[in-house]
Amino acid sequence: MYKGTGASAGIGIGRAVIVEEKELVIKRETVTDPAAEIQRFKGALEVSMKQTEALAEDLGKRVGEKEAEILKGHIMLLSDPMLVGEIETNIQNECMNAEYAIESVCTMYADMFASMGDELMQQRATDMRDIKTRMQKVLLGVASVDIAALPAGSVIVAKDLTPSMTAGINPANVTGIITELGGRTSHSAILARALEIPAVVALGGILEQVKDGDMAVLDGTEGTVLINPDDAVLAEYQNKRDAFLKEKKDLEQYIGKPSVTKDGVSVELVGNIGKPEDVDKVLQYDGEGVGLFRTEFLFMDRDSMPTEEEQFEAYRKVAVALDGKPVIIRTLDIGGDKEIPYMGLEKDENPFLGYRAVRFCLDRKDDVYRPQLRALLRASAYGNIKIMVPLVTCIEEYRQVKALVHEIMAELDREGIAYNKNIQLGIMVETAAASLIADIFAKEVDFFSIGTNDLTQYTMSVDRGNDKVSYLYSTFNPAVLRSIKRIITCAREAGIMVGMCGEAASDPMMLPLLLAFGLNEFSMSPSAILRARKMVTQYDTRELQAVADKAMSFATTAEVENYMREFINQ
To answer: Per the database record, which ranges form the Phosphotransferase system enzyme I N-terminal domain (predicted)?
Structure first.
């Protein structure tokens, strides 16, 4: 058995098909007619754009607009005047061939994105390498592997899958995906989940262990892979696959049902989104609102700041779609870790401990924060919008934001523009500092939302992108658990709503603890909502108190995880 990272849930069984893209050899050559070479580059650029547009359109029809947005992001990269301009300048000034000019410019950008350590930027690096290879293939006349034509019952085994390759997969023929590289948050993993194809990624060296035609079995939940298992093991996994598909079908019965425990405790199960289009998935899975709308996506992949009007329309669209259900919108969480040239942000030596989020926004009130807050307040007239401030570490920051919100409210009153005068202003509790003074915050803010991804990172002093220290990164660490419990207790004592929008909110092993602690709202990937609702309805919070007390008595992460795993499996 081989162990990787589960990227898309389910059991995949089929014959291995090794998918290897022909390695391109790009050499620098001197051209005598740079103007003609620029035209050659422009021709390849146009073909690549058309190919990507066709892929995006097909994906939009087959899967959904949200998934097609990933490829639309590629189109934006291909049409970026800065990228195109740099490639053309290299051809013109250095008299170099188009293939090499694309190689040098795109690789520079990809390396820059990859060095930032942020998950979003890692995806951007992969996207940049994807469009680079596609343009070069057009120039060299090299055909891509036709993934759409794979035979039924295929399990793809590859070094890595680019988003464009994944988008071309026919789910009727592909029963699983195994890759040596990649991560759970990569665009290809996101597409695999959207296509509902089980996937295991980050399985280094698997290509040396498997050959075309081998029987491959993978568990996309556990992240395990078996090659040529015996008949008994194969039968066991076939049963597992049938059980998984049955459970998935059974979850549909929870659509329209209330999220209430056996002893009558009501909670809200809501979705995390990054773009207005994502709200469709929240509604599809019967989410009770949006617990986190990440607004930074509105600011990326463009060469100028989104206007107040553009932002207003995006926020209004989500508020109207949810028709009175709560929509928690996080103000801009951006810093030196995200490359947005027009923002004029200097590269931060340590972006996660530096100039970002509320620190950056309060420093750029006039051109960045004020337009966003005005757009949010105006959109609040159309639905139940709540404003959430990220990375708050001291009460002064919150008071400054609140003062600015009241200033803008007075401005809107003078202009006769409608807004919700009782709009709630809360904070994302994601730092050790905010957790330690949660009692102070709870007296002044309207709600808490716990960001477990960063809370774990900051509490444990662990860069979650660093493999060497990843063993320390766990929400089940006693220090993190105590922090979460304290935050929830402080909120409950002050009578304010407390939610969670980190990965832990949908973790089956964490959910019983959060219910016992008294969490009000669980925000997660929309596809996890129905499974979470099923779990909620099966628990009695009074019985869970003893489970939580026992979990909190352990000294190590492993003890907590083992205990919760046993409890879940009973």
So the answer is: 3-124
Match 């998950």 to its residue by tokens. 119
The answer to whether residue 348 scores a pLDDT higher than 60 is: no
Residue 537 class from Cβ within 10 Å (0-12 exposed, 13-18 middle, 19+ buried)? Answer: middle
Helices 34-62 and 65-78: angle between axes, nearest 10 degrees? 170
Choice among 106, 187, 361, 490 that is catalytic: 187
Residue 501 is among the residues annotated as catalytic for this protein: yes
270-329 pLDDT tens trace:
999 888 988 988 999 999 999 999 998 788 767 788 999 999 999 999 999 999 999 999
CB half-sphere exposure, 490, CA atoms < 13 A: 24
Indicate if 74 belongs to the active site: no
430 is an annotated ligand-binding site residue? yes
CB 210 within 8 A of CB 157: yes
- What SS3 state is found at 265? coil
486 annotated ligand binder: no
pTM: predicted TM-score of the whole model, two decimal places: 0.72
Is residue 22 classed as helix, strand or coil in its secondary structure?
coil
What does the DSSP assignment read for 149-174? GPPTTEEEEES---HHHHHT--TTTE
pLDDT digits (tens, 9 = 90+) for 228-280: 999 999 999 999 999 999 988 899 999 999 999 999 999 999 999 888 988 98
Q: Is 359 annotated as a binding residue?
A: no
According to the annotation, is 294 in a ligand binding site? yes
CA 90, 96, 101, 105 dihedral sign is negative
